[in-house]
Amino acid sequence: MQKTKERVAVVLRSHPILVFLIGMILVFSLFSPGFLSLSTLVLIVKRTSIVGVIAAGMTLVILIGEIDLSIGAIGAFSSVTCAQLMAHNLPWPLATLLTLLLCCCWGALNGWITTRFSLPAFLITMVMSGIIRTVSSLITGTMAIPIAQSGFLRIGTGSLLFIPNSVLILVFVYALGVFVMSRTPFGRCVAAIGGNTRAAALSGIRVDRIKLTVLILSSCMASISGLIMTSKLCAGTSQIGTFWEIPVIASVLIGGTQFGEGEGRLISTLLGSLCIEIISSFQTSLGMPSFTQELFRGVLILIAIILNSRKRFFRKSSAVPEIF
What we know:
This protein starts with a helix and ends in a 10-residue tail after the last helix. β2 and β3 (163-164) form a beta hairpin. The protein is globular. The longest helix has 27 residues, at 207-233. By secondary structure, the chain is an all-alpha fold. Helices cover 75% and strands 2% of the residues. It has helices spanning 2-14, 16-31, 38-63, 71-87, 92-116, 121-140, 150-157, 165-183, 185-195, 197-202, 207-233, 245-254, 266-286, 290-309, 311-314; strands spanning 145-146, 159-160, 163-164, 235-236.
């Protein structure tokens, strides 16, 4: 029993966001009795898949000290491109694969410009965001493109063994991400670059190549979320992804990932994404006005970020960064 208590204490100390998450759920359930119902919790997890998948990629970007502001635009491009390909009778698996490849090309372009000209990624991706969203609008105009292929629609609306497909995608992304970051040379290189870029370069790590790969992965995650959202809407539209950047970056920061310090945990990012969705669902259940929602959400996100950042000042120094 004592060992069990010690293990629980270690988990709670290493994941302070988990304490915040549990406390938030308990407090919210007092104000909204139906908040802890199974249907509500399932809906929250399903909605988390959109932000959560992109946040996995953004975690890597922030680990190396950069920010990708093109994720919303790439989500929109993913939506209209896949819908347009299927509208021309391309089978949905092939249309999905081609869409992912095209979105990775946008990420490669972001990474190439960033590394080739030694410019901050946030500046390049901010400019590219406008370009990509304009291209998306040119593809579809202001009209949504309806999707009739049932196989594609099951991505966001179907389930396997009573588990929503979107949740299965979310679990797969994080399971793969944890493995890559903790068990592969790539994950160790990402942590090294975040910890000290100059030292990483001097040790032989090809910093530019790692940054390029990270930005490609970020675009790929944004594309996957765009496809999930498109499947839920049963149509492709260039309006997808508007303001995705704020909840995604907030999820990563709430999870405790520090800018350019090579330190962060994907599981904590997932918990941060859950926090964002729980706050939004609670506000919706209470019928809060939009201006009140922004204030309430901002205060809670700020508290969560401060709570998680405090562990840096009390944690004992370790030779191995927390990267999973």
